[in-house]
Every structure is written in structure tokens, then in C-alpha cells.
Amino acid sequence: MNPLKKKPRSNAYQPAPEKPDWLKVRLPFREKENPVDLVRSSVEGGKLNTVCESASCPNLNHCWSRKTATYMLAGDICTRRCSYCDVAFGKPFALDPEEPLRVAESAKALGLKHVVITSVNRDDLSDGGAAHYKKTVELIRERLPECKIEILVPDFKMREENLEIVYSSKPDIFNHNLETVERLFPTVAPAKKYERSLDVLQHASERGFLTKSGLILGLGETLEEVHQTLKDLRSVGVQMVTLGQYLQPTPTHLPVSEYIRPEVFKDLKEFGKALGFRTVFSGPLVRSSYHADEQVPWFEN
Length: 301
Prior knowledge:
Blueprint: H1 35-45, E1 49-50, H2 51-54, H3 60-65, E2 70-73, E3 77-78, E4 88-89, H4 99-110, E5 114-119, H5 130-143, E6 148-152, H6 160-167, E7 173-175, H7 185-188, H8 194-206, E8 210-217, H9 223-235, E9 240-245, H10 262-275, E10 279-282, H11 292-300
């Protein structure tokens, strides 16, 4: 674990309430040849980071057992201090120029058919890490020509020249998470801006990319605000959306306001479909890259 993860996210201390049954993850008995061990070996052997581990995703065992993982580029220290996120924050190290190659080799070794690549925010870099994304996508494409590549990017402060660098690698899916409703942005993600994130998604949509975004619920938003946010995402051309439950990583992170019941997620899926989203993944344990590979065949049928 990065030692910076032990730094308190805030001065407040509020343990998370007990999780309801629908949020409790049941782990299967380990098999002799466990795919989780294969993924871990590939990640650790390549000295790679994954958002699965760095963000303490509850689906790690489930996804890794399917031989899927979300690679996290540009180190494991973020320049932004979002109150909900468990990724370490602070002053990052210099980019590792060999990291894109190691990611590509790992993806090839695992035989992935769909790769999700994300990164920490790198506001310390003039291009925000855009060229690092480009190189990684291109190297994966060289080794796995048929593989679908999904990038989950920061906002790059809406600098068009940096977005164009990413576009030039021609990812199959362009993903940027809105995370929450407009009213909660100053509390949840103070370094982000609601309209700026929408502008990024609209810019990518207008360039012809298949765009995707995600929300985490249970932060204190109202149902009406979620409905409006989904409408805003559709208005800028987003075609894929994920909705999941916020889980408080530590007692010093932003507290959980509410555990959203499964039937509410089901209703939101229907609401999203009615708005015209082509896919809506909505459920308590859904995350942005959750079963990302299963969404692609829908578009190809």
C-alpha cells in the first residue's frame, strides 16, 4: 500500500454505518488454479497499478476472477484530493516511460479482449498525462489488434490540445466520470467542475467517440437531482452510463449519506433507458468499469 493512503482525508471522523445485506460481498472458495492469482501475478510482475486496488473497489475478486482489471497509469498518487476517493493524494513522481509497454505486455499475457485504462489526475504535467494515454493505447493496439480499448480519463482541465492527443490514439470508448450531482461538486470533488466535465464529454461526443460516464450515489443527492444529471449527460451525447453505491473507504472520508436500495437502482435504469442511453448499468456494486467488456457486444449486434 502507498503510505500516503494512510493520511486522513479530512479532520472529521465518522465510521460508515453497517452495510445492508445487498452490499455484502460473498467470496468463493479459492480454486487450485485461481484467475485472481494470475491477474495479481501479471500486475505485480509488471510493477503496475490498478484502480481496483488503489481505489479499494469491492468488486476486485469478482472482476479479477474473470481476468479483467482496470490499469491505472501515471503512478498511484493523485494531485487532487477528492473527499470520496481512496487513491492516495500528494506530489506524484515523474512518469515512468516504460509503463505503457508493461501495461500492453500484461494485457497481451492475459489475452484480454476488452481493456480499461484510467489514471490518476496529473495536474502537475503540461498535458495532464495525455501523451502517456496515447502511447499505452497504441502499444496495446499493436499487440492485441482485436481488443476493445476503453479509456477512463480525467478532465484535462478541458484543454482541447490535450484531448486531441488522446483522441489521436482512437480508443473504442471514451469514459469520463461525472461522479455526482452539480450541487455536491464543491464537497465531493472540489478540484472538478460540473460544467467542465460535461464540456469534456460533449467535446468527445462531437468528435464521434462513443462516450460513457458514471455516478456514485448515496452522497446526499436527491432523486430529482440524479434525474437532472442523467438528462444533462444525455444532452451532451453520452450513450453509456453506470450508477453505483458510494462506499466510505475510511472513517475520515466523506460519510455515506444513504445506502440506496436495489429497487431504486432498478428504477433509475429504466429512467436512463427512457432517456435514450444505449446501456445503463445500475446497481449497488456497479462501478465505472464493472463488466465493461459485456457492454461492447451490444453495439455490435
